[in-house]
Specification:
Radius of gyration: 23 Å
Oligomer: single chain
Number of strands: 21
Largest sheet: 8 strands, mixed
Shape: globular
Structural class: alpha+beta
Number of domains: 3
Length: 411
C-alpha cells in the first residue's frame, strides 16, 4: 500500500539540477543534516543516505522533465514573474523518499532537505498530493518549528459528468501507508460538505498513524444535534450500495487508477449499526449536513494551529502597522466552570479585532457574543497574553493572509 513521496524541485537556477556537487555541498553545510553515503545507480539515479537529526532516510535523486498536468492544483499564489519562470522551466530534480513513522514529520523533513539542497526554489511539485507549492512557502515551512498542516499531505479531486453527479477521491494518503478515500454519488449542491467529510476523515487517519481500519467507526462531528460517524468500506464492496452511479464505476477504474487500496466513506446511524457494520450512504445525511455541520478539529490540530499563529505573529504585527489592513485574532478564553471537563478547564475560541500590540500581549475587542463565558460580551476590550492566541487573519485590500500564507510577505 505504501508509495514513495515523489517531489520535483524547480530551482531558480536550472543549471544546479545537473550538478550533484552543488546540492550535495549544500546538504553538507546544513547544521541538521548528516550525509552518510552517496552512490550512483544507473537505473534509479543518485542514491543519498542521510539523517535529519536522528531520523534516517534514503533519497533517490535524478533530473527529470517538468510537465505540470492540468489537474495539478496551485494552492499558493505566484507573482506574474514567478509564473512566467514556471512556464519556461523545462526540467527539475526529482527527490523521492519513503516515509516511515510520523507522516507529518517525514513530510516536513523532505521539505527541509529540499530547502537545504537549493538556496532559491521557484516551486516544488508534490506529485502524491498533485499540488504545486511556492518555493517561498517551502522555505518558510522548512524553517518553522511547527509542522505543516495535514491538508498538505493529500488533496481531494472532484470528477463530474453532465448530469451534475460528482465523484470525490483523495490523492496522497498512500505515501503514509494508508488507503485513499472516496465519496460516491455526490452532487453539485453537496460536494463541498462531502469534501469536508473526506478531509476530516483523512485527518483522523493521519493523526492515528494508520490505526483506523475499514469498518472502524470514526467520529467526524455533529449536525443539527446528531453525531456524524463515518467508516471506510472497500470500493468493490461499496459499489453495491450505489448501483446507479455514473462516475466512479468499475469501468472508470480500468486504467489502473483508483482500483487498489481505496475506500468509500459511508456512515453509521447508531452504535448498533457500527457493531453490525450496517452501512448507510453519505447522501442519506444530506438534510442534516445542510444545517451548519461542525466537523471535529482535534486537540492535536488545534495545538498545531496555535503554535504556528504564535510563531508567526510578527507578520500579523507587520500587517497591523499598515492602516489599510484589518487584523483579527482568535483567542482561547477559559469558559465558565460549569462547561469544564471535570476539573479540566475548557476554552472557547473567539475572534477579536486587534487594537494594539504591546510587549506583554495584545489589546483586542471581541467581535461576537460568547456561548460559554458569562462575564464577556461583544465589544469588550482587554489585554490578552500572546500564549492565548490560536489564529489570526490579515485582511488587506487585495485579500486575506493567514499564518500559513505569510510567504506572501516573504522576500
Amino acid at each position: 500500500m505504501r508509495e514513495p513521496s515523489y517531489m520535483i524541485v524547480i530551482p531558480e537556477k536550472q543549471d544546479d539540477i545537473h550538478d550533484p556537487g552543488v546540492f550535495l555541498s549544500n546538504l553538507e553545510k546544513s547544521d541538521f543534516i548528516t550525509l552518510t553515503d552517496t552512490n550512483m545507480d544507473e537505473g534509479r539515479g543518485l542514491i543519498i543516505d542521510l539523517s535529519v537529526e536522528d531520523r534516517t532516510y534514503k533519497l533517490c535523486v535524478y533530473p527529470t522533465m517538468v510537465q505540470i498536468p492540468n489537474y495539478v492544483r496551485s494552492i499558493h499564489s505566484f507573482s506574474r514573474k514567478e509564473s512566467e519562470k514556471l512556464d519556461a522551466a523545462e526540467s527539475g530534480l526529482a527527490v523521492t523518499m519513503d516515509f516511515s513513522g510520523d507522516t507529518a514529520r517525514c513530510f516536513h523533513d523532505q521539505l527541509r532537505i529540499i530547502d537545504a539542497m537549493f538556496p532559491e526554489i521557484l516551486a516544488v511539485l508534490d506529485c502524491p498530493s498533485e499540488k504545486i507549492l511556492s518555493g517561498k512557502w517551502v522555505a518558510l515551512a522548512a524553517g518553522s518549528k511547527t509542522l505543516p498542516s495535514p491538508r498538505y499531505l493529500f488533496t481531494v479531486q472532484a470528477v463530474s459528468d453532465e448530469s451534475g453527479e460528482v465523484w470525490l477521491h483523495s490523492h496522497g494518503l498512500k505515501r503514509a501507508g494508508m488507503y485513499e478515500l472516496e465519496i460516491l454519488g455526490s452532487d453539485e449542491d453537496n460536494y463541498n460538505t462531502h469534501y469536508q467529510i473526506i478531509e476530516t476523515f483523512a485527518y483522523r487517519m493521519l493523526e492515528s498513524g494508520g490505526s483506523i481500519f475499514p469498518g472502524d467507526p470514526v467520529y467526524l462531528g455533529q449536525a443539527a444535534g446528531h453525531y456524524l460517524v463515518g467508516t471506510a468500506v472497500d470500493w468493490k464492496e461499496a459499489l453495491q450500495y450505489y448501483p446507479n452511479i455514473k462516475v466512479g464505476t468499475e469501468e472508470d477504474r480500468e486504467d489502473g487508477v483508483h482500483d487498489d487500496d481505496t475506500c468509500v466513506i459511508m456512515m453509521y446511524r447508531n452504535t448498533d449499526d457500527a457493531e453490525k457494520r450496517n452501512y448507510t450512504q453519505v447522501q442519506a445525511f444530506n438534510p442534516l449536513l445542510k444545517q451548519n455541520p461542525v466537523f471535529l478539529l482535534s486537540n492535536q490540530e488545534t495545538e498545531r494551529m496555535k503554535s504556528l499563529a504564535i510563531e508567526r505573529f510578527s507578520f500579523a504585527e507587520k500587517g497591523f502597522k499598515n492602516k489599510d489592513n484589518v487584523v483579527i485574532v482568535k483567542i482561547g478564553i477559559i469558559t465558565d466552570k460549569e462547561h469544564w471537563d471535570g476539573d479540566t478547564p475548557q476554552r472557547e475560541h473567539l475572534w477579536f479585532d486587534l487594537k494594539e500590540v504591546r510587549e506583554d500581549g495584545i489589546v483586542a475587542e471581541l467581535t461576537n457574543e460568547p456561548y460559554y463565558i458569562s462575564g464577556l460580551k461583544k465589544g469588550d476590550t482587554a489585554l490578552y497574553p500572546y500564549e492565548d492566541i490560536t489564529d489570526w487573519i490579515i485582511y488587506t485590500p487585495e485579500g486575506r493572509i493567514t499564518p500559513d500564507d505569510v510567504y506572501l510577505y516573504h522576500e
